[in-house]
Amino acid sequence: MYRKGIPRCGSGLRTTPLAKSGFFYYSRYTNYIIMNGKSNYQIYSTSKEAWDAMYQAISDAQKSIYWEVYILIDDSVGNRFFDLLCEKVKQGVDVKIVVDYWGSFWLSNKAIEKLKNAGVDIRLFKFDGNILHGLKNWLARRNHRKIMVIDEKIGFIGGVNVQKDMENWLDIHVSVKGNAVNSLSRAFAKSYIISGGDKEKVKKLLQYKFRIAKGEAKFIYDEPNQKISNARKKYTEALLKARERVILFSPYYFPDRKFLQALWAARKRGVRVDLLIPFRVDIKIAKYAAFTWFSIMRKHGVNIHLIDKMMHGKGVIVDDDWAMVGSSNIEQGGFYNNYEANVKIEDKSTVKKLKDKVLQWLEQTVSFDDIKWAKRSRWHKFKEKMALKMYKYWYGKKK
Questions:
Q1: Measured CA distances, 207 to 13, 119, 371 (Å)
Q2: Left (φ > 0), alpha (ψ -120 to 50) or beta: where does 263 sit?
Q3: What is the dihedral of CA 370, 375, 377, 381, to 10 degrees?
Q4: Domains of the chain by residue range
Q5: CATH architecture of structural domain 230-395
Q6: Which of these, 337, 53, 309, 294, lies nearest to 174 by C-alpha position?
Q7: What is the DSSP track for 136-184?
Q8: Most exposed of 56, 108, 206, 340 (fewest Cβ within 10 Å)?
Q9: Do 230-395 and 13-222 have the same topology in CATH?
Q10: Residues in a beta bridge with 183
Q11: How far is Cα of residue 130 from the mean position of the Cα atoms in its chain?
Q12: Secondary structure of 78-101 in HEC code, one letter for each residue
């Protein structure tokens, strides 16, 4: 059942005019975009911190607001944003929003109509293929990106959604200023068109041309059905090239073979590997599927840290050299099923700030060795086994 008046995305690249024109070639086959010039960053480590920063940026917007988000709900938090967005339209600001159909399933028709009537251009991303041709594809393809662009000058990217229940979640969101924002503008434009938006209305955003060169901000994008995940390449690169320490953090963890091989190789070189994961997550099957890996990872010397808070941040920190944060979880859905967006940061001061924050999180954790894992109940082991089977069935075997 579809919400009235909201365009849905096409059933695939081959059936769209943009695909025929070669529009998707850049997006599908370009691993990442590196921007020249100085980029300024700000790190936010909770959903609330990111909401406050984005709200202020929207308030200050003079020209345009482009927002691509997975979960956006009209509760007390979302309605505050909606009221402000409607007010900005009255001020002559161009406001465009792309939300994921399944992620924002509980976004009401009333809220959508309110935004539309105020002049907000809101689009719903949903795979519109024939359900008979593949239930898993029909359900699993999501736009999991969290991107905001203000006046084409300020960008936000990370893991933060908008829902009241998430207010106290630990998460990582980054604001970026400088030339790097052009990449986020272009990425938003592509999602807007895929979701049924008029190409002419974002044509100027597609005209940004970038040259791969040395720079500080490197954006890594993934799309469904790519043979190779660009985010996974960065995660494995972190393990293969680290000298001393790699810190991985993700709320959902289900690695594939190549990721595990890179992890074992890092440990053989004497690299310290820390994995931070919440003890309680919002998706129970993901929790128990992750638990199945803990024993074998611990045997290989991986330090597993469980935090008794909902930690929704996703990323990796490599020595003191670079970090990647964004929307890609360390699991198959994030690597192969979703539209994802991440940023690689090489600015040393920003990497230090991020590392300091994650180290503070690590201080609040319980070690895997301290939770008497071997003595867990048979019922717990059964749930792990069933979750693993379900995950393997859903995502298949990735090499």
A1: 20, 25, 54
A2: alpha
A3: 80
A4: 13-222, 230-395
A5: 2-Layer Sandwich (3.30)
A6: 53
A7: HHHHH-EE---EEEETTTEEEEES--B-GGGTT-EEEEEEEESTTHHHH
A8: 56
A9: yes
A10: none
A11: 26
A12: HHHHHHHHHHHHHCCCEEEEEEEC
Q: Where do we find the tokens 């941040």?
A: 313
Q: Indicate the pTM of the whole model.
A: 0.83
- Return the amino acid letter for 336: Y
Tokens coding 292: 């199945």
Q: Which CATH architecture has domain 13-222?
A: 2-Layer Sandwich (3.30)
Q: Measuring CA to CA, which residue among 55, 150, 51 is closest to residue 96?
A: 150
Q: Tens place of pLDDT for every residue, the chain, 399 residues?
A: 345 444 444 433 333 333 333 333 233 333 444 444 456 899 999 999 999 999 999 999 999 999 999 999 999 999 999 999 999 999 999 999 999 999 999 999 999 999 999 999 999 998 665 555 555 565 668 999 999 999 999 999 999 999 999 999 999 999 999 888 999 999 999 999 999 999 999 999 998 765 444 555 789 999 987 788 999 999 999 999 999 999 999 998 777 778 888 999 999 999 999 999 987 655 555 555 666 667 777 778 899 999 989 999 999 999 999 999 999 999 877 788 899 999 999 999 999 999 999 999 999 998 876 555 656 667 666 666 665 565 555 555 554
- Report the 10 Å Cβ neighbour count for 255: 24
Q: For residue 208, what are its two tokens?
A: 């940004």
